[in-house]
Write a structure and sequence with these properties.
304 residues, alpha/beta, Inosine-uridine Nucleoside N-ribohydrolase, Chain A, two-stranded antiparallel sheet, 12 helices, 12 strands, 18% strand, binds beta-D-ribofuranose, binds calcium ion
Length: 304
């Protein structure tokens, strides 16, 4: 089993990614970061997911704000508490520490993957504290960016847009990076038939996931007139646990931090000429979506 740490901002798809990771990997810890909702809310959501899963995975609290500027949240999609539309259980759990960065540094080992599925603030702070850290881990499989369209702005994806300076540091760090951007994650979608299958399972995790997807479908219907949702964050987990399902190509990726129209854009060098830059990441382009969805559904139906 692969060993990994999830750095997240749950977030509906983050919650599903945590559940999927617990099924297919050894999750050493969960670190939280301000993103979809403020830090307190996403930390509480991470604890809630560990309670639902009945696992002791430690949750370490990370950055409350990006390296530069004010926090940006995604209440329009995830609700003000990050898990809108989902029944909450009283979990009574508390974080293991307030030092996500310290945990990330201490847990480093050559077989440990770091899977960031929120803004990259904690990861950049770890690199700032110890630039060699990236060479002591197996790699970083992140959900963020895109080779084409954005979602927070026409060119920027939310996780990168919420902390472009952090993302720029991560892509320039020399880490072994897999980038699962929107161009990939839009290929893996839930529909109302996914919700029906989960409801029919009649199990706690599946019922939770049915509420998660139903909420996202309601939001998408209101925002773009379609009842389906991209399952972004689980892709970054699958790139580690089931790499054969994902096609990736080495590419130079830089993050725009200044452009008036393009701040937070991942600029992927796709030129075919000899001028193409040295690769800084494996950029994921394709996923076997049918096989990936079966793995997700299997993890959601596999509870006690
Ligand atoms: C990313 O942004 C968040 O809203 C999701 O959880 C995902 O990590 C998609 O752009
Ligand atoms: Ca996320």
């Amino acid at each position: 089993m692969k060993r990994l740490i999830i750095d997240c901002d749950p977030g509906h798809d983050d919650a599903i990614a945590i559940i999927l990771a617990q099924r297919h990997a050894e999750v050493l810890g969960i670190t939280t970061v301000s993103g979809n909702a403020p830090l307190d809310a996403v930390t509480d959501n991470a604890l809630l997911v560990t309670a639902l899963l009945n696992v002791d995975t430690p949750v370490h609290v990370g950055a409350a704000r990006p390296l530069v500027g004010d926090p940006i949240h995604a209440a329009r999609v995830h609700g003000v508490n990050g898990l809108g539309g989902v029944d909450r259980i009283e979990h009574g759990r508390t974080p293991a520490s307030e030092d996500a960065v310290g945990f990330l540094l201490e847990a480093a080992a050559e077989d440990v993957w770091v899977v960031p599925i929120g803004p990259l603030t904690n990861i950049a702070l770890a690199i700032e504290r110890d630039p060699d850290w990236v060479h002591r881990i197996a790699g970083i499989s992140l959900m963020g960016g895109s080779v084409d369209s954005g979602n927070a702005t026409p060119k920027a994806e939310f996780n990168i847009f919420a902390d472009p300076e952090a993302a720029a540091k991560v892509f320039a760090s020399g880490a072994n990076i897999i980038m699962c951007g929107l161009n990939l994650t839009h290929q893996l979608r839930t529909t109302d038939s996914t919700v029906e299958r989960l409801r029919a399972m009649d199990r706690p995790l599946a019922t939770f996931a049915a509420q998660v997807f139903d909420h996202l479908h309601n939001r998408m219907e209101e925002l773009i007139g379609q009842r389906n949702a991209a399952l972004h964050d689980p892709c970054a987990v699958l790139a580690v646990t089931h790499p054969h399902l994902i096609d990736a190509e080495p590419r130079a990726v830089a993050v725009e931090t200044e452009g008036k129209l393009t701040r937070g854009m991942t600029v992927v060098d796709e030129r075919v000429t000899r001028r193409r830059g040295e690769p800084t990441a494996q950029v994921a382009y394709g996923i076997d979506a049918a096989a990936a969805m079966e793995l997700v559904l299997d993890a959601l139906g596999a509870d006690q």
